[in-house]
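The data layer described in this paper is built around a simple, fixed record for each protein. We quote a single record here, exactly as it is kept in our systems:
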Amino acid sequence: MVHENLKKHQFKPGQSGNVKGRPKGSSSKFKGTLSQLRQLNDLDLTRQFLRAVVTSDIKILEKLGITDAPTVTAKITAAKELNKVNAEISEKDAESKAQQAYAQVKNVAPVSPQFSRVASINTGTK
């Protein structure tokens, strides 16, 4: 009897999942927001958003128009993206430090030798 009730409510052949759910190819709010932030090319803002998703910081997410709590999938994706963003920020910081070091070296006056003329020693014999 129990098995018969389950079969009545199971999906029909060729039909699976939530038929009236989100259409394939449509993006979640998380992916849409992340895409917009990436287009702005503001790594710090992107990092703040990703941290908010990973930690489920609802206050920050509501400011961005996301009212639902992040799903587990969104949190996992955010953690992966956060690693990428942190790597990009580290790379840019390293490039910036290298450029600053090069600029400092370039702006320093050349070191002049202590002795510009070598005294000639007369070794002649008498």
